[in-house]
Amino acid sequence: MSAAVEVNLVDGIEVIVLANADKLIAESISGRIQPFIKVGTYEETHPLEINYAYGIYKKDGKESFYINFQKYYAAKGYTQFIGGTINELGMQLLKASSWKESIDIFSYFFSIFPNAPQVHDSLAFAYLSMDEPKKGDFNSDYVSNNYVYGQ
Protein backbone atom coordinates (compact mmCIF):
# COMPACT_ATOMS: atom_id res chain seq x y z
CA MET A 1 0.00 0.00 0.00
CA SER A 2 1.30 3.43 -0.80
CA ALA A 3 -0.12 6.84 -0.06
CA ALA A 4 0.82 10.34 -1.08
CA VAL A 5 -0.35 13.78 -0.04
CA GLU A 6 0.73 16.93 -1.82
CA VAL A 7 -0.32 20.36 -0.63
CA ASN A 8 0.26 23.47 -2.72
CA LEU A 9 -0.60 26.36 -0.39
CA VAL A 10 0.07 29.02 -3.02
CA ASP A 11 -2.50 27.69 -5.48
CA GLY A 12 -4.80 26.04 -2.92
CA ILE A 13 -4.33 22.56 -4.34
CA GLU A 14 -4.44 19.41 -2.24
CA VAL A 15 -3.83 16.04 -3.85
CA ILE A 16 -4.39 12.82 -1.91
CA VAL A 17 -3.71 9.48 -3.58
CA LEU A 18 -4.07 6.01 -2.09
CA ALA A 19 -2.90 3.01 -4.10
CA ASN A 20 -3.25 -0.64 -3.24
CA ALA A 21 0.26 -1.25 -4.53
CA ASP A 22 3.84 -0.68 -3.53
CA LYS A 23 6.77 0.77 -5.49
CA LEU A 24 5.68 4.36 -4.83
CA ILE A 25 2.72 4.16 -7.21
CA ALA A 26 0.69 6.75 -5.27
CA GLU A 27 3.64 9.12 -5.26
CA SER A 28 4.03 8.71 -9.01
CA ILE A 29 0.34 9.45 -9.58
CA SER A 30 0.24 12.47 -7.27
CA GLY A 31 3.35 13.87 -8.93
CA ARG A 32 1.50 13.84 -12.25
CA ILE A 33 -1.81 15.29 -11.05
CA GLN A 34 -0.54 18.63 -9.80
CA PRO A 35 1.27 19.60 -13.05
CA PHE A 36 -1.84 18.61 -14.99
CA ILE A 37 -4.02 20.86 -12.81
CA LYS A 38 -1.60 23.78 -13.16
CA VAL A 39 -0.56 23.59 -16.82
CA GLY A 40 -2.72 20.93 -18.44
CA THR A 41 0.12 18.53 -19.24
CA TYR A 42 2.12 15.87 -17.46
CA GLU A 43 5.11 13.64 -18.15
CA GLU A 44 4.68 10.43 -20.11
CA THR A 45 4.28 7.35 -17.94
CA HIS A 46 6.85 4.58 -17.97
CA PRO A 47 6.62 1.02 -16.73
CA LEU A 48 8.52 0.28 -13.54
CA GLU A 49 12.18 -0.29 -14.31
CA ILE A 50 12.12 -4.04 -13.70
CA ASN A 51 8.92 -4.44 -15.71
CA TYR A 52 10.49 -2.54 -18.59
CA ALA A 53 13.65 -4.67 -18.41
CA TYR A 54 11.67 -7.91 -18.35
CA GLY A 55 9.51 -6.76 -21.25
CA ILE A 56 12.57 -6.03 -23.38
CA TYR A 57 14.13 -9.39 -22.43
CA LYS A 58 10.94 -11.26 -23.39
CA LYS A 59 10.31 -9.27 -26.57
CA ASP A 60 13.84 -9.14 -27.96
CA GLY A 61 15.39 -12.31 -26.55
CA LYS A 62 18.55 -12.85 -24.58
CA GLU A 63 21.14 -11.91 -27.23
CA SER A 64 19.47 -8.66 -28.28
CA PHE A 65 18.80 -7.80 -24.63
CA TYR A 66 22.51 -8.17 -23.83
CA ILE A 67 23.49 -5.95 -26.77
CA ASN A 68 20.83 -3.24 -26.60
CA PHE A 69 19.31 -2.97 -23.14
CA GLN A 70 21.63 -0.29 -21.72
CA LYS A 71 20.92 2.11 -24.57
CA TYR A 72 17.16 1.36 -24.51
CA TYR A 73 17.09 1.98 -20.75
CA ALA A 74 18.86 5.34 -21.08
CA ALA A 75 16.81 6.39 -24.12
CA LYS A 76 13.55 5.80 -22.20
CA GLY A 77 14.76 8.24 -19.55
CA TYR A 78 15.20 5.83 -16.65
CA THR A 79 17.54 7.22 -14.02
CA GLN A 80 17.62 4.41 -11.45
CA PHE A 81 21.03 2.68 -11.43
CA ILE A 82 20.78 -0.05 -14.06
CA GLY A 83 22.58 -2.55 -11.82
CA GLY A 84 19.86 -2.22 -9.19
CA THR A 85 17.17 -2.77 -11.80
CA ILE A 86 18.88 -5.86 -13.23
CA ASN A 87 19.62 -7.34 -9.81
CA GLU A 88 16.05 -6.79 -8.62
CA LEU A 89 14.68 -8.38 -11.80
CA GLY A 90 16.95 -11.41 -11.35
CA MET A 91 15.80 -11.81 -7.75
CA GLN A 92 12.13 -11.55 -8.76
CA LEU A 93 12.68 -14.25 -11.39
CA LEU A 94 14.34 -16.46 -8.75
CA LYS A 95 11.38 -15.94 -6.45
CA ALA A 96 9.11 -17.09 -9.29
CA SER A 97 11.38 -20.14 -9.90
CA SER A 98 12.14 -18.89 -13.41
CA TRP A 99 15.61 -20.40 -13.22
CA LYS A 100 16.80 -20.03 -16.82
CA GLU A 101 15.57 -16.45 -17.06
CA SER A 102 17.15 -15.51 -13.74
CA ILE A 103 20.52 -16.94 -14.82
CA ASP A 104 20.23 -15.06 -18.13
CA ILE A 105 19.59 -11.81 -16.24
CA PHE A 106 22.35 -12.37 -13.68
CA SER A 107 24.75 -13.32 -16.50
CA TYR A 108 23.90 -10.02 -18.18
CA PHE A 109 24.51 -8.29 -14.84
CA PHE A 110 27.93 -9.99 -14.76
CA SER A 111 28.67 -8.87 -18.34
CA ILE A 112 28.21 -5.19 -17.47
CA PHE A 113 29.74 -5.26 -13.97
CA PRO A 114 32.24 -8.18 -13.96
CA ASN A 115 34.20 -6.89 -10.97
CA ALA A 116 31.29 -5.97 -8.70
CA PRO A 117 30.98 -8.25 -5.65
CA GLN A 118 27.16 -7.92 -5.67
CA VAL A 119 27.06 -9.54 -9.12
CA HIS A 120 29.01 -12.57 -7.93
CA ASP A 121 26.86 -12.87 -4.82
CA SER A 122 23.68 -12.69 -6.87
CA LEU A 123 24.88 -15.40 -9.26
CA ALA A 124 25.95 -17.60 -6.34
CA PHE A 125 22.61 -17.10 -4.63
CA ALA A 126 20.81 -17.97 -7.87
CA TYR A 127 22.73 -21.22 -8.22
CA LEU A 128 22.17 -22.03 -4.56
CA SER A 129 18.45 -21.41 -5.04
CA MET A 130 18.53 -23.82 -7.99
CA ASP A 131 20.28 -26.44 -5.81
CA GLU A 132 23.47 -26.12 -7.89
CA PRO A 133 25.83 -24.42 -5.40
CA LYS A 134 29.05 -25.61 -7.07
CA LYS A 135 28.28 -23.47 -10.15
CA GLY A 136 28.26 -20.37 -7.96
CA ASP A 137 31.40 -21.20 -5.99
CA PHE A 138 33.50 -18.12 -5.21
CA ASN A 139 34.73 -16.08 -2.25
CA SER A 140 31.86 -13.86 -1.22
CA ASP A 141 32.37 -10.37 0.12
CA TYR A 142 28.96 -10.52 1.80
CA VAL A 143 28.36 -14.09 3.01
CA SER A 144 31.04 -15.62 5.23
CA ASN A 145 30.32 -19.24 4.27
CA ASN A 146 30.26 -18.45 0.52
CA TYR A 147 26.77 -19.91 0.20
CA VAL A 148 28.01 -23.38 1.13
CA TYR A 149 25.35 -25.72 2.52
CA GLY A 150 25.60 -26.75 6.16
CA GLN A 151 27.94 -24.05 7.41
Fraction of residues in H or I helices? 40-55%
Named at the architecture level, the CATH assignment of the largest domain is Alpha Horseshoe
Note the total helix count. 6
> What's the level 1 CATH class of the largest domain?
Mainly Alpha
Overall body shape: elongated
- Largest beta-sheet characterization: 2 strands, antiparallel
Strand content: 5-15%
Low-confidence stretches: none
Distance between the termini: 38 Å
Question: What do you see in this structure?
Answer:
The chain has 151 residues and is mainly α. The chain has 2 domains: 2-39; 49-136, Serine Threonine Protein Phosphatase 5, Tetratricopeptide repeat (Alpha Horseshoe). The chain has helices spanning 25-39, 49-60, 62-75, 82-95, 99-112, 117-129, and strands spanning 2-8, 13-19. A two-stranded antiparallel ribbon has the order 1-2. Strand 1 and strand 2 (13-19) form a beta hairpin. Helix 2 runs antiparallel to helix 3 (62-75), helix 2 packs across helix 4 and helix 5 (99-112) runs antiparallel to helix 6. The radius of gyration is 20 Å and the shape is elongated. 21% of the residues are buried. The model has no long low-confidence stretch (mean pLDDT 85).
Describe, in short, the structure shown.
The chain is mainly alpha-helical. It folds into two domains: 2-39; 49-136, Serine Threonine Protein Phosphatase 5, Tetratricopeptide repeat (Alpha Horseshoe).
